[in-house]
TrEMBL record:
Organism, scientific name: Microbispora oryzae
SUPFAM superfamilies found in the cross-reference section: PLP-dependent transferases
Gene3D superfamilies on file: Aspartate Aminotransferase, domain 1, Type I PLP-dependent aspartate aminotransferase-like (Major domain)
Highest taxon above the source species: Bacteria
Record key words, sorted: Aminotransferase, Pyridoxal phosphate, Transferase
Quaternary data: Homodimer.
GO MF annotations, alphabetized: pyridoxal phosphate binding; transaminase activity
Protein name as annotated: PLP-dependent aminotransferase family protein
Domain Aminotransferase class I/classII large stretches: 45-377
One Gene Ontology biological process: alpha-amino acid metabolic process
Taxonomic lineage of the native organism: Bacteria, Bacillati, Actinomycetota, Actinomycetes, Streptosporangiales
Transmembrane feature ranges: none
């Protein structure tokens, strides 16, 4: 196990004078915190003997039913029996990897991909093979070629890990045609799909996209989370899996932690039952849309020629590409000296790629800070170009 680039950055980026475009922290201050406080106090007063007790390894049944209702917004029809509640979707990733991976097995993942997943895959000694992507998500032809090449080399592919909607870190979304193609390619090749979807309900311009799992219940393990639609502090996420996988997940869950915290599961359940959560998600969408707009407008005006970036339709992240010859990791200390932080692109690959890239997040700083951060960043890039 090695520390991720993001972890090493946290200490510097959290200094108040630094505008951090680095972390992916949701803006939880926008929640009605006193209401959440009342709800938690009421939970302990009225259902304390359950909330403070051990729970089932699969998770609270009422919460699993509510999770099914949340997933219906993305076209998923599933029952609570197929859901396992996990400690954030990060634990679901860990359990899935633990179940499937023997050292040397191959996991396919977009290039770039979520740093926390890559760390988990490496911890279990999986070999990650990246699949190329463009502005419409991963490229089906590249997936097909890679599967053939890996299988021809006699290596065993365990699953494709994909974040199809508002990807972390690239901010792009797999379009509908490609979703069908990717499912078909994986079905033909006997490759399971792990669809990680923490940002799916945070689209700015349209109704939620249909999840890949909605069209292939047997071929897809779907991972969801309340971290971005409610708050990460509850640490409540879930996996929706085909029956046989679900059984193993519960065993792995019990071996890891016996059961998830009953307290936070019930708190999330109570929140969903008593608060206008759809309205809350809508207001998060508006908040993040304004920040995305601030970042894109500032980049358009301020960044030197030769830089490009994605234009996310939702989620938290913009993926920027620097002109040929620049190295974002080498640039970072100079950026921090100018009081702005980002995550260098290499952390999102396992093969050393990503030097010219960086992830810029707009979820946490307020719009004025975002504009100031981009102004500082553009200045640093200008200086790099003159070195
Ligand atoms: N997957 C992706 C793509 C993420 O961006 C994150 C959080 N940054 C996670 C999983 C883990 O989130 P959590 O454990 O809070 O649900």
């Amino acid at each position: 196990m090695v520390a991720s680039e993001i972890r090493a950055l946290f200490a510097v980026a959290s200094r108040p004078e630094v505008v951090s475009l680095a972390g992916g922290m949701p803006y939880v201050t926008a929640l009605p915190l006193d209401l959440v406080g009342e709800l938690v106090a009421d939970l302990v007063a009225t259902r304390g003997s359950v909330a403070l007790q051990y729970g089932s390894g699969q998770g609270d049944l009422a919460l699993r039913e509510q999770i099914c209702e949340v997933m219906r917004m993305e076209g998923i029809e599933a029952g609570p029996d197929d859901v396992v509640v996990t400690v954030g979707s990060q634990q679901a990733l860990d359990l899935i990897t633990r179940i499937f991976i023997d050292p040397g097995d191959v996991v396919l993942a977009e290039g770039p991909s979520y740093v926390g997943a890559l760390g988990t895959f490496s911890a279990y000694q999986a070999k990650v093979v990246h699949i190329a992507m463009d502005d419409h998500g991963l490229i089906p032809e590249s997936l097909e070629e890679t599967i053939s090449a890996v299988q021809a080399a006699g290596e065993r592919i365990k699953f494709l890990y994909t974040i199809p909607t508002f990807q972390n870190p690239a901010g792009v979304t797999l379009n509908e045609v490609r979703r069908r193609q990717v499912l078909e390619i994986c079905r033909r090749a006997g490759v399971l799909v792990v669809e990680d979807n923490p940002y799916g309900l945070l689209g700015f311009d349209r109704e939620p996209l249909r999840a890949m799992r909605a069209d292939d219940p047997e071929g897809v393990v779907y991972l969801g989370s309340f971290s971005k639609t409610l708050a990460p502090g509850f640490r409540v996420g879930w996996a929706l899996a085909p029956h046989a996988v679900r059984q193993k997940l519960v065993l792995a869950m019990e071996s890891a932690v016996l059961s998830h915290s009953s307290f936070t599961q019930l708190a999330v359940g109570q929140y969903l039952a008593t608060q206008p959560w759809r309205e809350q998600i809508k207001s998060f969408r508006e908040l993040y849309r304004e920040r995305r707009d601030a970042m894109l407008a500032a980049l358009d005006v301020l960044m030197p020629p030769g830089c490009t970036w994605t234009r996310p339709g939702g989620g938290f992240f913009v993926w920027a590409t620097l002109p040929e010859g620049l190295d974002s990791k080498a640039m970072l200390p100079r950026a921090v000296a100018e009081r702005v932080a980002f995550v260098p692109g290499t952390g999102f690959y396992t093969d050393g790629d990503g030097k010219r890239h960086m992830r810029l997040s707009y979820c946490y700083p307020e719009p004025d800070r975002i504009r100031e951060g981009v102004r500082r960043l553009a200045g640093v890039v200008e200086q790099e170009l003159q070195l």
